[in-house]
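hey so u asked for the seq, here:
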Amino acid sequence: MFRDLAPDYIERVDVIGNKAFIEFVEQLEKEEDIALDTFQVGKDKLVIVTIAPDPNKMDKDIALPTLSPILVRKKTLAEEIAALDIFAMSCPPFPRKAEDAAAKTFRYEGYDLLTLQKLIERDYTLPEVQTSQEVISYYAKRIAQDVKLPAQFAALAPKVREFLETRAFGERVDLDDPAIIKAISTNVAQYVAVQTFVKALRPLVVQELEPKLLNEGRKLSETPPFPYSRPTIQASKTIFNLVTCGNKFEQAFAKFLQDARDIVAFAKLPEQFGFAIEYTDASNNLRY
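ran it, structure tokens below
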């Protein structure tokens, strides 16, 4: 009903129907042991609580300083990729598998959907990778995609080649050897190679900066009005007409701040104000 609402806003859905439908709803309430609220059109009034800055309490306004970002994603990792120590990477050696005929072919069977009669039966041969460069190119693209830096393909490809040639098998190998090409083309080799590079590069993607004060800040009185469906309390020490509370604990805490003698002004920061702090999650992705 409202755009740009906070995710915790509770909206109401009105159910309107004829007499038979209302009887069905009443029967459902009995069977499910629930009680639905009723609303009589023309008699009951719909009340939407709106939170907004109170122009009569501007002395309780609070300004939040605007700082430059403390965490940013680097636009390039070319220097970091070139400086990677391949032999310092921790990964198990790639296995060298023998010929596996089953992995090279698969059988397709087509059935009629109604009669379940088999109509087609064919054996297909999977095309094999011809050169190691195909594998290197694919690995570099996957790594760049997972690290979310697609422009780093040119820097990654040589380092992936160095990894496969000198580190992946625990010894130097010839990447033009057909047996080695097959070995680096397996799903296991792909997973290990990609995850090894992603693990090494993700901590380098986000750069920590020293924040700078851009201006004196934005005032809470600039917050646009918004509807609110959770508990609220009246308070004279806040810029808003009501204090929004997510639960009873927040209600009690807001009352404590209101009654505290050494508190001049307070407010719960609304999502509509647009305040955010950069941080990184467990996978080192930049979040807000």
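The helical segments are 19-32, 78-82, 101-104, 132-147, 153-166, 178-184, 187-205, 248-259. The longest helix spans residues 187-205.
lmk if thats what u needed
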